Amino acid sequence: MPPPLSLSLPSPPPPLQPLSLLPHHAKAPSHSLALSSRPPPSSVCSVVPARHSDYFDPRAPPPPPQRDVYGQPPPTPAQGTPGARVFASYSIYKGKAALAFDPRPPQFVPLESGALKVVKEGFVLLQFAPAVAARQYDWSRKQVFSLSVWEMGTLLSLGPTDSCEFFHDPFKGRSDEGKVRKVLKVEPTPDGNGRFFNLSVQNRLLNVDESIYIPITKGEYAVIVSTFNYIIPHIMGWSTFTNSIKPEDSQPYSRPQSSPELEWRR
Amino acid sequence: MPPPLSLSLPSPPPPLQPLSLLPHHAKAPSHSLALSSRPPPSSVCSVVPARHSDYFDPRAPPPPPQRDVYGQPPPTPAQGTPGARVFASYSIYKGKAALAFDPRPPQFVPLESGALKVVKEGFVLLQFAPAVAARQYDWSRKQVFSLSVWEMGTLLSLGPTDSCEFFHDPFKGRSDEGKVRKVLKVEPTPDGNGRFFNLSVQNRLLNVDESIYIPITKGEYAVIVSTFNYIIPHIMGWSTFTNSIKPEDSQPYSRPQSSPELEWRR
Amino acid sequence: MPPPLSLSLPSPPPPLQPLSLLPHHAKAPSHSLALSSRPPPSSVCSVVPARHSDYFDPRAPPPPPQRDVYGQPPPTPAQGTPGARVFASYSIYKGKAALAFDPRPPQFVPLESGALKVVKEGFVLLQFAPAVAARQYDWSRKQVFSLSVWEMGTLLSLGPTDSCEFFHDPFKGRSDEGKVRKVLKVEPTPDGNGRFFNLSVQNRLLNVDESIYIPITKGEYAVIVSTFNYIIPHIMGWSTFTNSIKPEDSQPYSRPQSSPELEWRR
Amino acid sequence: MPPPLSLSLPSPPPPLQPLSLLPHHAKAPSHSLALSSRPPPSSVCSVVPARHSDYFDPRAPPPPPQRDVYGQPPPTPAQGTPGARVFASYSIYKGKAALAFDPRPPQFVPLESGALKVVKEGFVLLQFAPAVAARQYDWSRKQVFSLSVWEMGTLLSLGPTDSCEFFHDPFKGRSDEGKVRKVLKVEPTPDGNGRFFNLSVQNRLLNVDESIYIPITKGEYAVIVSTFNYIIPHIMGWSTFTNSIKPEDSQPYSRPQSSPELEWRR
Asked: Is the ipTM of this complex over 0.85?
């Protein structure tokens, strides 16, 4: 039932990108060598994990682009000041591929009253990168899939033997609609102890037809569940609502008027 | 067993409201057209979802009224300042209706000691709107139901085949008691993969007798569970209690006195 | 199997306390009357609930004492200032008794390094009050039980048919040890849809032998579970740890030294 | 099946450390005596717990070292100021051993854009200490195990009858690789009501071969689950990401460009 571990790359693989993340990392190739000499920790609980993380991990995805997904440069506070943007992801490294989960914030607009309103939910960007050598992943060839809140809920509710498929067309409603087709499949591993995440991308614009598999252990899936439960209320903006609750500004109570808006049970 | 998807509107439908949310949205009708030409994403996991959200989503409920449920205008900070009120909801759009979940904060009163006390739990306002065209919902005809913490707990504990009914009379204890009767039913879909949310409102004051159904997929229900687990401690005011914990103000310890108030296990 | 709903009060009941919480509440007796004329909302899901909450709820427990459990007056900020103490509880009102859950913060001490350390976990104070009339509870006769983190965990892990008992002696280790014995029992209701919370107190110092039962619906128990999961990390002080994480103060990395303290997996 | 409760200490036990945590604690030996005269609370729910916590608990692990795991002295704010570091742990005390869970923060680096990026996930340090007398534990002989996020997820997903083993080599990839071997085993107790945590350490550098067992009740495990679910998003840095969401700084929206980075479902 579960698909074989294969990596189809019909288009010739692009030249391997230098994996340096920050300037001084490039100066420490021996660090990278030291890393690749470490065997993975093992566990009898589940699929043998091959992941670990280290400082300036050469396997990690590069930092996000200076221009964000909304086509705007982000505000640039002084380096490392309180309130600066923080990027965090959850990365899983396996033999044939790596998968990183990156949460992205919701969008707000100001209302005339001075209040703010969520107009667009955030999401979690899944980034799949193929392995090109032992513990090396080519993030320049990554394929991405932005998981909506509803899709995250679907993964949360997935029983251990359930499967799931999501279809995305990044150009839906635009002139290139139908030219890129992405399918994310999540299905149980044969031993029932984990899951495969499989992203297939057919891109007729770039003549690309790729499929990347990565096995996820039960423990890693539990981390996904824990982080999704945490992040959902945040990328829906509910946490900014709760942050705006000011007990000391609570209004004096007056009897609610009768109106459909003011339904009261009690 | 599950009720048929019907929309009873004995009273003549009111004229369709213009769906503009903000002034400059009304200037972009072509954006709305672009939207309605997009087919919904699909999934093999559950009931086919027909929801998506976009900037200034023409399907979304209008912003909350300037006067809040307590009959008071909210404090009006300068536009977009830190600490401004934030409105967030979770909206689900389907073929015949839309359903929005809006959290509302608890109420506090100051005590003589200078501390604050929660005097009224918050709630989650459910807003049901009927569809009037493809991807268009008439929020002027919405019906609302304010879900208490206890009712949210009941939905959290609902097994996949359980059903649930809540009865509200917004005028309970007042002169118009009994003239408006609301029933919220939550029951499993025939395939067991989702749930129907059904709000019936009998309003003898307005001569209205409506019933709105909306199917909720398993993934959407998982989002509801995740957001309810998040929001319950906040609308009960427990988060304002925890925010008031100041480690640096922790009192020097002295042996507790013996009194019923000071029960200690150890 | 489940115990009968009985209320044993061998000592003569004390005179009923006036239920006013704040001065101006005493001026509104008609409000109280209006309240007691409201029938409870009903639900087909579970034990019929008889709870609701209102502004200055005459049924609610009085505000906490000016002197806290550590025998110290709390710091008194100006009324309603940001950062003021906030009291929040979760109260369940039934025909024969009411039960309020009040979270209490952990205690901290400063270390020589300037950091702070949790020295005592917080707890949740359970307050049981007998009903003395329809929708009136005598909080002056309340019996309390302080639920530790470990006991909260036990309630979280309780299966639907499991029972549980906790024994407390508030004077354990002191001269009056053994003179007061408290037993909290949690057991399933006969229909399996809820739970009984039963607090028995034998106090030989005051010649009191009381037992208070209150039925808790499945939905109310789900609220307890949700609030316990929320509050446990806070009353253990883990949230003050996480609040003290300052990304901008993150130290430059240096290779950890080898020592038992510095165990590293990778 | 479950291993016998044994404590193997082939190397001669080091001299017992004075258990004073803070200067004035050493002056109160009678307090310690008072403590050890208290019988443990009991419960019919599970393995009889022998844990309790008290102010300046003589059983508790000592405060963390002035130099942290990264070999750097932590920043030292004035004593007890807001924003000071806070140390919190979850400690379980049993007849033969104590086990403390200490969360440790992630590491961040500034990016050129001024933003910050998580470069190393935090972890939870497990500290096992053998009992040396009634309610006395020798933390100078503690053995530690740093539990990664992935391992925490594995414990979260452990069914009631599942077992689990993790292997760590603190010197993996360094010259002393293979000289220290740690194995953490988690397995069900014979009655199925709890779990054994067992840490075995073979340290050929110090000629140590130790194994420490501690039984964990179902309620204590539920606290572990609750705190792990809470702490995972924090030690992954996701909470610093969400804290950096500023609704008032939300960017004006512009149509996303088409690029692999900008995948959109809708």
From this structure: no
Best residue in C24, C85, C135 for a mutation probing chain B (most B CBs within 10 Å): C85
Q: B100 pLDDT exceeds 60? A: yes
A222 and D156 within 8 Å at the Cβ level: the answer is yes
Cα–Cα distance for residue pair B99/B60, rounded to 1 Å:
9
A201 within 8 A of A208, measured Cβ to Cβ: yes
Provide the mean pLDDT of chain D.
Answer: 74
Question: Is D27 an 8 Å CB contact of chain A?
Answer: no
Cβ distance B80 to D248 less than 8 Å, yes or no, reads yes
Give the pLDDT confidence of C52-103 residue by residue, as tens digits.
333 446 677 776 654 444 434 444 444 445 567 888 899 999 999 999 999 9
The SS3 call for residue C126 is strand
CB proximity A255 to C under 8 Å: no
**Could you read off the pLDDT of C3-52 as tens digits, one per residue?**
333 232 223 333 333 332 333 333 332 222 222 233 333 334 533 333 33
The pair of structure tokens assigned to C121 is 């976990």
Return the pLDDT at D44: 41
Averaged pLDDT score across all residues of chain A: 74
Confidence of residue D82 (pLDDT cuts 50, 70, 90): low
B touches which chains (3+ CB pairs under 8 A)?
A, C, D
Strands B116-120 and C86-87 come out as parallel
On whether any CB of chain D is under 8 Å from the CB of B54, the answer is yes
Structure tokens at D163: 């077992």
- Is pLDDT above 90 for C178? yes
Residues of A in contact with C55 (CB under 8 A): 253
Question: Angle, to 10 degrees, between the axis of helix A218-235 and the axis of helix A149-156?
Answer: 140
Residues 171-200, chain C: which have Cβ within 8 Å of D? 172-173
Cβ of D226 under 8 Å from any chain A Cβ?
no
pLDDT at D12 over 60: no
